[in-house]
Amino acid sequence: MRTFMIFVATMLFAFSASAQDLLVKRNGEQMKVKVLKITKKNVEFVRHGTELPIYKLPISDIEYIEYPMGDRDTFGRTVSSEPTTQTEPKKWHGPVPTHDGKLFVEIEEPGKQEQPAKQPAMWHGAVQNKVVTSVEVMPAEGETIYSIGDIYDKNGIKGVVVMLSDGGRHGLIMSLDEVCLAWCNLHRKQQKRAIGATDRYDGQKNMVAVEKYIAENGLSWSNFPAFEWCRAKGEGWYLPSINELWSAGTMYLGGSRTISNRKVRKNFNDNVVNAGGTPLSGIMIYHSSTEDKDARYSLYSHMNSEPPYIQSGYKADDLFVRAFHKF
Question: Which residues pair with residue 56 across a beta bridge?
């Protein structure tokens, strides 16, 4: 019995050490952190795998925090004394980013420690030390800072910006054109086999899984038309994961899946058309690279505000496809 208890304690310690919280800011930026405490105005945390320094962000800058067990605190656009709960699409675990043009960088400044107001799941306790907060800054001379809907065009890579990180310096772009293709065209019996493209957060990993499956089974990229089309655009292009696809649609709508911002959509599509591309439409359904748990199906999403936002369908179905690329 004693040995069993030691084993359980060891496993719990290992889980706690490796667990990470996902903090999603209103500008779409994602951060892997360990939350220390949540107050009425701020969230304090350390970056994943560190103990110092302690960072502090105002709740008004945060869309939500997702914890290792899948539960989350959603903050939205207003500061409140208690986090609110937002209805999420079926089978969805990704971010709900919002459109925000502000640029932030983290700087150190003195701050006093406050007592925890509400401890979220997997709370780890605060560390007494300096606190880091956020201020608005200007980009360095010659540095390009992007916003959602901008056209990225460098080194032969061109697309529309749909996700941001590092204060707008990096992110994801989506191809200006689209096509209607099947996820795969294998025989019905073969379509029941799991390919291994199950990543919900990174479509590049799913591309690697498909490539491995092709090599191991004597197939070709032509057996996976949607993947082949993205791959043909050149190195680095891929079929997006369900997380990336759904997040792109949310940013296209203006940062909310429940309230579509017509001005943001028009600006987005005007930029795409002016760059020689095809505008997005809310009635189109797009393939993601993510397989469903039932290997016969893959996950797909759309670009409008009406639920359900995430659904699954047969891999042989012809749906629209947009390629993604990281920058």
Answer: 44
